[in-house]
Amino acid sequence: MAYRGAVIGLGWMGLLYDLAPRMGTWHVDDVDRPTPELNIDRRFYFHSQHLKGMQGSSTSYCEAIHNRPDVDLIAAAERDVKRLAAFKKRYGVDAIYTDAVEMLEKERPEIVGIASNTKGRPDLVCAAVANGAKGIFTEKPIAYTLEECDRMLRACADAGVPMVTGAISVNHPSFAVAKDLMTNGTIGDIVSIETVSNRNVSQHQNWAYFMDSTPAWVIGFGDAPRRESGSAEFRGSGMLVTDTDQVVHFRKDGPAVRITGTEGEILHAAHYAPWELLKDVEPVDGAGKSRIPIPWPGVQLLPPYHNAVYGLADVIRCLDGELDEPKNSARSVAMAFEVELAMKMSAAQGGKRIDLPLSDRSLAMKYDWHR
After folding, report:
1. What is the pTM of this model?
2. C-beta of residue 268 within 8 angstroms of C-beta of residue 258
3. What pLDDT does residue 260 have?
4. Is 310 helix (H, G, I), strand (E, B) or coil?
5. CATH number for the domain formed by residue range(s) 173-300+333-355
6. Residue 332 backbone dihedrals phi, psi, to 5 degrees
7. How many whole angstroms separate alpha carbon 171 and alpha carbon 209?
């Protein structure tokens, strides 16, 4: 029997991305936002092809649920009635609501995609769990405050609900290939992890998936003032050390992820870029080892890739007992969020060491206008 699925928020990631080019600016609380001319009849490949590692062309939460044979798209909630009408016309679904909580209470969907803005996400996640959701996938950033993160994680953990959030790229199966290479000795003992620090540390938290222990302390320096766009996200450099002495370096204009080992390295040069594997080999002339690229041994991330398909796939795999938690779990994303806040605190105090966890759970982040 198929899971009952629903989507909250029919903006770009919820619905529009698959039907029109991006356009317009608006306030996130507007209920009458600009909507482009939509290609309502556009079609995509079947979901089963994506699960075999092929790069799909669909992006939205609606399409991810609709194209998956083991989930039925049964409802949607959105404040903008124009977008609700577009959803109904495309999918032939009559259960449409302007109140998301009412939808959750009446329809009780088991799989919930939450593509609304950050403001209402903690309450919506908790409401979904309270009304019987078995799995949740949602957008970045995870929340405004640490308290909101705590509340969502606690609700999901208490009910055994897997939740995917954060950067959509980490859901891709190639990340699991990279982590297996990291842990199976392919590049030897791990020396350090490096990641870009001025490209949204906790929104594009690719590095967090590769953490094997709890963050113990951070330092940060060189942060930038809040931007005109509204964002005050960390834009400096820094370092994280875990309770097992695992080290992550945050560097301006660095790679999305570089995992360095004693016998090679794994490189993800930029968000959504293909993975690279380099190994130390002994040359035939005996002149000493050289670090050279070798073929990537598994599913590869090939652009374009901006879809919600793999996040939903991880939720289903958790429900089927194939994963303990999603690759891009709310737990790891909340950890990245706390690390970013701590680096901001450190930078504001001249690079002072900040121990984790942070005691003040009211600490908050400011994002760009559209978040």
Report:
1. 0.93
2. yes
3. 97
4. helix
5. 3.30.360.10
6. -70, -35
7. 10
